[in-house]
Amino acid sequence: MRAGLEPAVTGAVVASVTVFDERSLRRHDGPSEDFIDRLTGATLEGAVRRGKFLWLPLADTDVVGSRGTGVTQSLAGLPHPSVRLPHPSVHLPHPSVHLPHPSAHEAVVLHLGMSGQVLLRDRRTDDALTRIRLELDHPVLGPLRLNFVDQRIFGSMSIDALVPSGDDRAAGLGSDSRLIPAQVAHIARDPLDPAFDDRHFLARLAGKNTTIKRAMLDQTLVSGIGNIYADEALWAARIHYDQPTTTLSRPRAKALLVEVRAVLSRALGEGGTSFDAQYVNVNGASGYFSHSLNAYGRQGAACPRCGRPIVRDQFMNRGAHYCPYCQRVR
DNA sequence: AGCGAGCCCTGCGCGC
DNA sequence: TGCGCGCAGGGCTCGC
Fold first, then answer.
1. Which nucleotides in chain C lie closer than 7 A to a protein CB?
2. What confidence tens digit (pLDDT) does each residue in A82-132 have?
3. DSSP line for A191-249
4. Using the CA of A290, which nucleotide's C1' is the nearest one?
5. What letter would DSSP give residue A167?
6. What's the topology of domain A198-322?
7. Which numeric CATH code is attached to A2-184?
8. A291 beta carbon < 7 A from strand C?
9. Is the CB of A318 under 7 A from strand C?
10. Where in chain A is the domain with CATH 3.20.190.10?
11. Which pTM was predicted?
12. Phi and psi dihedrals of A253, rounded to 5?
């Protein structure tokens, strides 16, 4: 989603905002009028991600001299290979957009929850269950529509202050900025982040008095891993979901981290995991990773490694899928 | 600290 | 065919 949004939102001006359901602003500190007022007319500077949170920094508008100075962001190479934007006929050789100085102090923050989608459309296209809509004017691509769709409304949009992330590394993927939305500051880096610190993670993991899957799903320890990718990485590393972290050896923990990265990389390469039309990219296309699952959702089916049946346990009010033969507590 | 329960929601598939 | 139930990719708060 980040990769798909980046070329469409960078340099775009928010022409109008429509909130169809205020419940999607649960994490916005203020009424919908506030969200609309602050966003309307704003220029989006890019698309940045940490774990499952995405944010679009807003160019400062009330800082004298901040607009139109300095940075030129190249949009050459548009569109992203996996992205088909609504206006493919717009073709400019090596287009570029002059952006304000990247000193944004606010951002639009998005989380998809369980059932959220962000769909890039032309100005005529509606999507069922659209909760919030942004009409964008992009300097190269022209008029666009961003539909935030969410069946269960566990996801959200909000405007949040950008605060220092605490170290001198980029706060997320997609920007060099060290600023992070306040509501995302407690979220750990994800294992694909170049600034992810393996040693720091392994030390914190070893110091926890819990079990491994619970730790993997703890977004303040490591982010970006949900129920599917936890089960898949544990299967690949042959580790039982209820293995105590205190007895998980460092070599096995390191091997698990390797498998987490492999699973996340492959899933991103295949566009994510789609069981239905719920999980789609910005064009509404489904990912293919569901065809690559070895454990998740495969209870009763043969383990691809040993042929014995995969089992599903109730765990943390969710399912834990594993092979009782390959994955044992030890 | 860690953990379980509960909550925020809708829609789908299944069994009866 | 129709209904009720269980289930679903997440994250947060609360009380123990």
1. 7-12
2. 333 333 333 333 334 444 445 689 999 999 998 888 999 999 988 888 999
3. TTSTT--HHHHHHHHHT--SBHHHHHT-TTTS-S--HHHHHHHHHHHT--TT-BGGGS-
4. C9
5. S
6. Helicase, Ruva Protein; domain 3 (1.10.8)
7. 3.20.190.10
8. no
9. yes
10. 2-184
11. 0.87
12. -65, -40
